[in-house]
Write a structure and sequence with these properties.
Blueprint: H1 3-6, E1 7-12, E2 15-20, H2 31-45, E3 52-57, E4 61-63, H3 68-72, H4 78-97, E5 102-106, E6 109-111, H5 113-120, E7 123-127, E8 131-133, H6 146-150, H7 156-165, E9 169-170, H8 171-176, E10 182-184, H9 189-201, H10 205-219, H11 223-237, H12 241-252
Parallel strand pairs: 2-3, 3-5, 4-6, 5-7, 6-8, 7-10
Antiparallel strand pairs: 1-2, 8-9
Helix pairs in contact: 2-4, 4-5, 10-11
Length: about 260
């Protein structure tokens, strides 16, 4: 299967949907799938037409994590394992660093690195039938890289419970602990995701980029440092053409004309 077949792409008025398309392999994050996803994210980073990215999956499993059959074939190769986990970590950071918001559309099961994929996205909408787990502990391989994204989205105790038990978490429980934003009937999933994406896509692209980048940077700072940093960000943001246009449009009671500058 080619990279184009592994991940299908659809564009609709500034909303680009990347769909993991290996349902027969439970959309596992094989080396090839990860590389295909990495390549697409790199391309989207510089795509001026894309304002919002939706990450979806075909079939009944969103993503089952790493391809264990592929890993079993390389059990004696530490270099392969290191390359695999490094590439996966790169992809997750590409999502966080992408200068456009990323929404996970989750139907079915998201486990291990698949759960990590959901946690790495800026927002996540799940069908009420979706389930989540970090079950590596059950097979003797602790979900160490998935816990990086997981522990930055849910509280420590909730993250540790998922990591230590490996048990499945329902969509509604995932919403309660902050892993996903919304849970809807599966029949309403596409409409809900699209409505959310359209709302975000209507904003200034430059403003979204500034805000997303600053959000993740300030999370790693102490309180005083974060306020100093974000004060500087807002002062620079005020010099942007879209900020000045937005303020004038608000005061003039008209719709802003974004230039993404």
């Amino acid at each position: 299967m080619t990279a184009e077949e592994m991940i299908t792409i659809a564009n609709d008025n500034g909303i680009t949907t990347l769909t993991l398309n290996q349902p027969e392999n439970r959309n596992s994050l094989s080396m090839a799938m990860l590389q295909a996803l990495s390549d697409q994210l790199e391309e989207l980073a510089g795509d001026a037409e894309t304002r919002v990215v939706v990450l979806a999956a075909s079939g009944r499993v969103f993503c089952a994590g790493h391809d264990l059959k592929e890993i079993r074939g390389q059990l004696d190769s530490h270099q392969f394992q290191l390359d695999l986990f490094n590439l996966c970590s790169k992809v997750m950071q590409q999502i966080v660093n992408l200068p456009k918001p990323v929404i996970a559309r989750v139907a079915g099961v998201a486990t291990a690195a698949g759960c990590q994929l959901v946690a790495s996205c800026d927002l996540a909408v799940a069908a009420d039938t979706a389930r989540f787990a970090t079950p590596g502990v059950n097979i003797g391989l602790f979900c160490s890289t998935p816990m990086v994204a997981l522990s930055r989205n849910v509280s420590r105790k909730h993250a540790m419970e998922m990591l230590l038990t490996g048990e499945m978490v329902s969509a509604h429980r995932a919403e309660q602990i902050g892993l996903v934003n919304r849970v809807v009937d599966e029949q309403a999933l596409d409409e809900t995701v699209r409505d959310l994406a359209v709302t975000i896509a209507s904003k200034s692209g430059r403003t979204l980029q500034i805000g997303k980048e600053a959000f993740y940077q300030q999370l790693e700072m102490g309180l005083a440092e974060a306020y100093d940093f974000t004060s500087e960000v807002m002062a620079k943001n005020m010099q942007a053409a879209d900020a000045q246009e937005g303020i004038c449009a608000f005061l003039d009671k008209r719709k802003p004309d974004w230039k993404d500058k």
